[in-house]
Specification:
Shape: elongated
Structural class: alpha+beta
Strand order of the largest sheet: 5-4-3-6-9
Largest sheet: 5 strands, mixed
Order of helices and strands: HHHHEEHHHEEEHHHEHEEHHHHE
Number of helices: 15
Oligomer: single chain
Length: 426
């Protein structure tokens, strides 16, 4: 029995026996009430013990998440400890002297909660085993991403996502009206947290479907990247002073071209280009001549509009139409340099994550004796950073993970024609 029916049944049996029964019935009812109290007390002790294990388990799984792909050996050890903690919690819930408590209303619901948490955690830990010993550094070799390995990893993550989704559903199906206040609050918080994590896992599991084609899994993919600075105001990413173009083919990156934005503007003027698409962009910004004045292409805060206008311009200039258009400013370059490490960029000096903002947003304007030196130095710096990415020999998962910070701040943007809901681009 569960819910109101269980409580009603217990109340009716005891009240009727006490009110209408004879001495034996009243004695039996009183004894039943005492046994219920004793069972509830024993169950409370078992639940407290299990709750301590569950709290430890939460910390252990958080540590697993923090070290995943970063310290494989540590992750394996953490999962071993998590399994031991799960067994300890399960033993507390299944101890023989607390089993009668599972027949007591309200107390029984907290046992169901404990069972659900323990079983769900066990399923997630078991599902995580295949990815526990994965080192992010193994996903790249001589600058080439191992797309087959990433595809396999995505499938393994999908298993973890399915386990988390099942746990979310089981926990959500519990009747929380019967939980004590602290337990109800903890479950509500856990559900919110698990929904967020499950959503992240689902997106990560879709990586092979959404990302690998743009990394060259199905053939060469052309990326056109604007390198911007916020030192001169534009609503999307900043002023696009430079551009680089590279091709991704089977996980390998080949830098094919680069230049200053004015090199494209010269071609646009000679070709007599005018802005024709997209209509909303033309209506709002056409008077600023963003084509052929391509340095104004990022005027709009809606980067897809800027990217679509740029793709159209490049197509009309006879350049290969990009499969992906992206933009990165000094905020994003700081994140990239965390991954590559310091890069010698020639006249602009050695750039690293600690100096790139100041060097490109401020110093570039007073570093050179003549105005003509600065554009060449910026182009060389752009090429050097991209080349450093193409020659990566290993991946630091912790540094890659921190790329979410500049992405959240708009320091790295991307657009794919015709696929606005692509999880990889998002």
């Amino acid at each position: 029995l569960d819910g109101w029916s269980a409580l009603a049944a217990w109340a009716i049996v005891i009240v009727v026996a006490l009110a209408l029964g004879g001495p034996i019935a009243r004695t039996a009812a009183g004894l039943l009430a005492l046994l219920s109290v004793a069972a509830a007390a024993a169950g409370g002790v078992a639940l407290v013990q299990a709750a301590g294990d569950i709290e430890d388990l939460q910390s252990q799984l958080t540590a697993v998440e923090d070290e995943l792909f970063v310290e494989p050996d540590a992750v394996v050890s953490m999962l071993d400890r998590a399994e031991a903690t799960i067994e300890s919690a399960r033993s507390s819930l299944d101890v023989w002297w607390a089993r009668p408590a599972r027949l007591v209303p309200i107390v029984s619901h907290h046992f169901l909660l404990g069972d659900s948490v323990v079983d769900s955690s066990a399923a997630i830990v078991a599902a995580a085993r295949p990815i526990a010993d994965t080192d992010a550094g193994e996903l790249i070799e001589l600058g080439r991403l191992d797309l087959d390995r990433i595809d396999d990893l995505s499938a393994d993550v999908a298993v973890v996502a399915a386990a988390a989704d099942t746990g979310l559903r089981d926990l959500g199906d519990l009747d929380r009206r019967w939980f004590l206040g602290p337990a109800r609050t903890a479950v509500d918080e856990a559900l919110d947290d698990l929904r967020e994590r499950t959503d992240t896992l689902d997106k990560l599991a879709r990586l092979s479907h959404d990302a690998l084609p743009y990394l060259g899994a199905d053939g060469p993919q052309r990326w056109f990247v604007l390198v911007c600075t916020p030192a001169e105001a534009r609503a999307s990413c900043g002023f696009p002073g430079n551009w680089v173009e590279f091709v991704m083919d089977d996980g390998a990156t080949d830098l094919v071209d680069s230049g200053r934005i004015n090199s494209l503007e010269v071609d646009a003027v000679e070709a007599g280009l005018t802005l024709s698409d997209p209509p909303e962009f033309v209506a709002h910004y056409g008077r600023f001549d963003p084509v052929p004045t391509l340095r104004n292409i990022t005027l709009t805060p809606d980067f897809p509009s800027s990217a679509e206008a740029l793709a159209t311009a490049l197509d009309e200039l006879g350049r290969p139409r990009p499969d992906v258009i992206a933009a990165v400013n000094t905020d994003g370059l700081e994140g990239v340099l965390r991954v590559t490490g310091p890069v010698d960029t020639g006249p602009m000096g050695v750039l690293d994550s600690s100096n790139v903002r100041d060097r490109l947003d401020v110093e570039q304007y007073n570093r050179f004796e003549t105005q003509g030196e600065r554009p060449d130095a910026l182009e060389e710096a752009s090429r050097a950073v991209v080349e450093a990415v193409t020659m990566l020999a290993t991946l630091d998962a912790a540094a890659v993970r921190r790329l979410s910070e500049p992405i959240d701040r708009g320091g790295m943007l991307a657009w794919v024609p015709g696929e606005p809901d692509n999880v990889f681009v998002e």
